[in-house]
Every structure is written in structure tokens, then in C-alpha cells.
């Protein structure tokens, strides 16, 4: 699509007529390439991509929901002059470093890069620069930023759907899955160019480049202090002894899931953990009699689960978890009005200011500034009054500081 044919919001213009039906993209332009699964083929692919030109479209498929690990089970690459490559890391020992010299220098084009960069780093691949089409769509103010909707809206094409949540650890991979994977990188570079043009017209390209670099250089996430507290349905349980049972079952499940490389929810559903903790069965037989534990797989593990419950039941009161999770940040916003009315007034003013800027620039407020940073700033304003410095210390990018620091400084002067 000609980028000149976009309206001010980035939507395709149609001269008042109904938008045309998107053209289905059903097969890779150069045919479906053979999967790269041996060192010789990987070396050939490296040579082809080294000889190519321009950015490299990159994607990876994991088996989230099926496997414990977040490893890459397929890596897709596309570059002008090199075509598309589908690389299976598994038979290659999850080591694709042979590709690194050919692909590290050029810009990578990914969609939702933060979802794939970690698993790509595990196989030895990392970008020197990147362009994230999902993040670009958000900053451009586009209403839908999934890959399919973006390709349809910006390029007039429709992508195959249906395999994104598949079990990509399956071997051999079905041909229709491979077609889907190849098409995911088929038009990424064209989409990148259209979005870059749109961002330039909106005066946001520099913002986007700062955001892309922040994603590229982001440190690994810090593990949660008490990940078991994210068990679905745990809010039903309040007593420390019951929470200890949830913790014990969660940790037992996590160990088993890691050993077997199976998604934890497939080893034991969260609902089973909560029900067992609430029921406090006194014997393994009583546990096995619970409906949610009657399946064949759970019957074989009855003694394992009951041992975890028994261990929790024997804990000294001093070893029981707190009823509330640890929190190093401000209290829940609903309590601010009672605990610190001035802080509540500051937050209301700050949120209104950020919302106004978001509407002015057609950028979602969560992309203008992390909501948690706004809350922390309003709960504990910087003692030296350096709002810009506090924003930088909190991870805000230069464009965000320039756009919002003066407005937030004004908001921090508001009183109840």
C-alpha cells in the first residue's frame, strides 16, 4: 500500500467507499522452504543471509501452554536477496550461533519483540538494532496492533490464522504450520517501512526508536519473590495455613513441571491446587477422592501431592506465609484517599495530564509512561523537586521526560 494513502490517524483512505476486501496471503512468495535442521544447511543459510541486503524479519515459535520452558522451537528469518529461512533449533542443539555473524549487524524487524528476544538469545542470536511493528503501531495510535490486523489495515493483506498457540514442540511440524510460520515474516519488512513512514509524518519516529532500543537493551525480568501467589483463585483463601498449602502444592508442581518440561497447568490445574488447599484432606485417600484428583494421571501422583500438603500442615506458625504479599511500592490506589489525601489529589492530576497528552498525540497512556512510575512519583514526590531526574531514574526515555516532566511537576503541586 502506498503510504501516501493514509489519513491523519494512519488509516487507509478509501474516498468514502467501503474498504476493499483484504487479499489473502496463502503461500510464501518463493514457495515453502525446506526446514534448516543440520549444520551444513545452517551454514548455507548463514551465507545467504550475509549476502542479502536490508533489514531482517525475525520471528520465533515457542510452545507456551504445552512446555515449561520458553525455548524457541522454530526460528523464521527473511531478508531481501536471501528469501525466507525456517530454522529448527532442536536438532541443532539449540545453538544457532553460526548465524550470528550474518544477522547481528542489520536491523531486525519483529512483532512484539519483547516476547521473542529472550528465546532468541538462548539460541545465540541477538540484534544490534530493531524495529518492533507492534510497538510502532501503538505509538502511531492505530486501533488494532496484532500482526494480522496491522497487515490487513496497512497493507491490504490477510494472514493465515490458527497456529500461533499450537504445540510447536511437536515433530514433525505439519506443513500448514510451516506455511503459517513463513508467512509471519513474509511482509514484516514492508509493514516496517509503512509504519516508519507514518511515524515520521506524525513526528514520532524518534520516540519509536528510543522505545525499540529500550526493548532491545532491557535487562532480564527479576523473578517474582513469591510466584505462587499468582495461583488463580487464591483470593478465596485468607488463612496463612491454607496459603501455606497452596505454596507447597505450587512448588511441588513447579518442580515436576520443570523436570518433565511440561506447562505447570497441564501437570496440575490451579483450580486443583486451591480446592485441595481449602479442603485440607487428612489422608491421601481423601485427597484422591476429590473429583478434581480422580483422573488417572493424578491418581498416580496422589502420594506426591499429599506429601506436599502434609509438609505444609507441619510448618511452625512462624514459617507460614503472610496473608498479604510483600510490596515495596505504594499502597493500593483505593486506599490513598484515607491514607494520604494529597497524594490522591496528585495522582488524579497526574493521570489527567498524561491522559490529555495521550489524546493529543494519539498514544495509549501506558506507552506514554508506565502507570507504576506515575503512582510512585505521586506517592513519594522527589525531595529535591527534580521530576525529570526522577522520571529518568524510573526508566522513562528522553522523549517521555521532555513531553511530560513539566506537566507532572505541576501535578505534584496539587493539594486535596
From TrEMBL:
Residues 1-31, 317-339 are annotated as: Disordered. Residues 239-319 form the HRDC domain. Residues 323-333 have a biased composition (Pro residues). This is HRDC domain-containing protein. Residues 1-17 have a biased composition (Basic and acidic residues). InterPro entries: 3'-5'_exonuclease_dom, Exo_C, HRDC-like_sf, HRDC_dom, HRDC_dom_sf, RNase_D-like, RNaseH-like_sf, RNaseH_sf. It comes from Pseudonocardia aurantiaca. Gene3D superfamilies: HRDC domain, Ribonuclease H-like superfamily/Ribonuclease H. It comes from the Bacteria.
Amino acid at each position: 500500500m502506498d503510504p501516501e494513502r493514509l489519513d491523519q490517524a494512519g488509516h487507509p483512505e478509501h474516498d468514502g467507499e467501503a474498504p476493499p476486501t483484504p487479499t489473502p496471503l496463502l503461500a510464501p512468495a518463493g514457495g515453502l522452504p525446506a526446514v534448516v535442521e543440520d549444520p551444513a544447511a545452517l551454514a548455507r543459510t548463514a551465507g545467504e543471509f550475509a549476502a542479502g541486503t536490508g533489514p531482517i524479519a525475525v520471528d520465533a515459535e515457542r510452545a507456551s501452554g504445552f512446555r515449561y520452558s520458553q525455548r524457541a522451537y522454530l526460528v523464521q528469518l527473511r531478508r531481501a536477496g536471501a528469501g525466507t529461512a525456517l530454522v529448527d533449533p532442536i536438532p541443532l542443539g539449540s545453538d544457532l550461533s553460526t548465524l550470528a555473524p550474518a544477522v547481528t549487524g542489520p536491523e531486525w524487524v519483529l512483532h512484539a519483540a519483547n516476547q521473542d528476544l529472550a528465546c532468541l538469545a538462548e539460541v545465540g542470536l541477538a540484534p544490534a538494532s530493531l524495529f518492533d511493528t507492534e510497538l510502532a503501531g501503538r505509538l502511531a495510535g492505530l486501533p488494532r496492533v496484532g500482526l494480522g490486523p496491522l497487515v490487513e489495515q496497512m497493507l491490504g493483506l490477510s494472514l493465515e490464522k490458527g497456529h500461533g498457540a499450537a504445540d510447536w514442540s511437536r515433530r514433525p511440524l505439519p506443513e500448514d504450520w510451516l506455511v503459517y510460520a513463513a508467512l509471519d515474516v513474509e511482509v514484516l519488512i514492508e509493514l516496517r517501512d509503512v509504519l516508519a513512514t507514518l511515524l515520521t509524518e506524525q513526528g514520532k519516529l524518534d520516540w519509536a526508536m528510543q522505545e525499540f532500543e529500550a526493548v532491545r537493551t532491557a535487562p532480564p525480568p527479576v523473578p517474582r519473590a513469591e510466584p505462587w501467589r499468582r495461583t488463580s483463585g487464591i483470593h478465596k483463601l485468607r488463612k496463612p495455613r491454607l496459603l501455606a498449602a497452596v505454596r507447597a502444592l505450587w512448588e511441588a508442581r513447579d518442580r515436576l513441571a520443570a523436570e518433565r518440561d511440561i506447562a505447570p497447568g497441564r501437570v496440575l490445574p490451579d483450580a486443583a491446587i486451591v480446592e485441595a488447599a481449602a479442603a485440607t484432606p487428612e489422608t491421601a485417600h481423601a485427597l484422591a477422592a476429590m473429583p478434581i484428583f480422580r483422573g488417572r494421571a493424578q491418581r498416580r501422583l496422589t502420594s506426591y501431592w499429599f506429601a506436599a500438603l502434609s509438609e505444609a500442615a507441619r510448618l511452625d506458625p512462624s514459617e507460614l506465609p503472610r496473608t498479604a504479599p510483600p510490596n515495596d511500592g505504594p499502597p493500593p490506589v483505593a486506599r490513598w484517599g484515607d491514607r494520604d489525601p494529597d497524594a490522591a489529589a496528585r495522582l488524579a492530576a497526574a493521570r489527567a495530564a498524561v491522559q490529555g497528552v495521550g489524546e493529543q498525540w494519539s498514544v495509549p497512556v501506558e506507552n506514554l509512561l508506565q502507570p507504576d512510575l506515575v503512582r510512585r512519583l505521586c506517592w513519594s514526590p522527589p525531595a529535591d523537586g527534580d521530576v525529570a531526574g526522577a522520571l529518568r531514574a524510573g526508566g522513562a526515555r528522553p522523549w517521555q521526560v521532555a513531553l511530560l516532566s513539566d506537566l507532572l511537576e505541576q501535578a505534584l503541586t496539587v493539594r486535596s
